[in-house]
Amino acid sequence: MAYFSSASKMNLLVTLSLLLCSTLMDSVKGYLTVTIEPLPPVVMGDTVTLKCNFRTDGNLREIVWFRVTEGGSSKQKIFTYDAMYNTNFSHMEDFRRREDLVYQSTVRLPEVQMEDNGPYECHVGIYDRASRDKVVLASGSITLAVMSPPKSISVIAADQPARFNRYEAQNFTLMCIVTGGKPAPVVYFKRDGELIEVVPSDKPHEAAESRGLFSARESRPLISRDLDDTKLQKSLSLLEPDVEPVRLDNVRPHQSNTPGALGQEGPQPTTEIIPETVVSREFPRWVLSSSPLYYFNHTQTEFSDGTMEVQAMLTWHLNPQLDNDALFSCEVKHPALSMPMQAEVTLSAPKGPKLSMTPSRAKVGDTVRIAVEGFQVGTKGNEVFPEPLFTWTRVGGLLLDGSAEREGKVLVLERVPAELNGSMYRCTAENPLGSTNTHTRLIVFENPRIKKESLQFNVADSGEELFGPTFMMLLLSVTLEFT
Q1: What pTM does this model have?
Q2: Architecture in CATH of 152-242+280-346
Q3: What is d(CA 118, CA 437) in angstroms, rounded to the nearest whole number?
């Protein structure tokens, strides 16, 4: 009994020793956990605070923050905290005392830029409870997403300037260019303030062409909100070839009264109503549906700094009667914007170019410049969109250089001769919505300087012809007399 009792005591002592050693080893081992508080995407220019939380029962050794660059192959140290040189953490705690401590390290990044985008790491080290020569390390990471709002937005017309096609419908494309956004913005179009329902297409031009004009020709004629009687009558007369065209004079068809018709009322002659409003621009010879299909396509290009350029294109069959004076806007939604960003244009046909001539009093031999300075009647600051094509011609003849026409905003006539006096020049401004023109007459005055030089030259020539032989005969006679 005594033997078994002593053996039981020995087992109990061994068990207690093992438990004590386990407890001591557990207290020496300690633990360390590191986490970084997540951050939502931030806007470029904001101030960002990165927070690194770590929990441990040991003594803090150091905290190091890194910015990871070059795809993770390189790390840039941005912050270091060393507890050995900080009096607040220089005290040594009792190894047998187990205490759970929570720390937080923050790094403030003022006015973040696009180059601040990327991963960040927080490394924490504590002393090993078994040996002060060893350090236990742990780390956490976070990816900082920096957003950049779009810097610019513009709306242009693709493939412009272009001529006005009066015999066939043509496709028209608006292009909205948005640059500087990250992530890529959402782009959409509106017409007169209402969102346009679009048909996605990789090749909007081909999609619009494949639709063709067959269904459009079968549709009803257009009656636009700005379609007056003049436009309606002209459009209907083009659709119905049997209808007699509107007469622009007051001459009525000749009618004769027969004796048998004296007592009867004959058919009253039809009076043609001539509109008071004279429309200067030309109208197309075709009619499209009042609800066209809009085809949408967009492309994205990424720059070296991570920002994007988005080009959104809206293509449809243009109808000059319906689309003239229509307001199209391109709007952009982006998480870095508090409200949509937009750019708008108003489609308008040219209303007649306003011309200027320099010099105002042209003389023979001068260089004359006839330039376009604007339009006679315009909308919203005398602007025309899309940009018109200007063509110069001479009424009843060729231009001074022998060409039939010349494009551009300025026509230059070098060393104008007197023969051009009274000549008429026509400037035609056209875009896909319409065509119009303005005439100006060139008056060439005599140039006194050229006339005087010409007169002196003629007198010198005539003097040589008249006095040359006489002087030679006189000189010869005097010589003979002296000899």
Answers
A1: 0.64
A2: Sandwich (2.60)
A3: 59
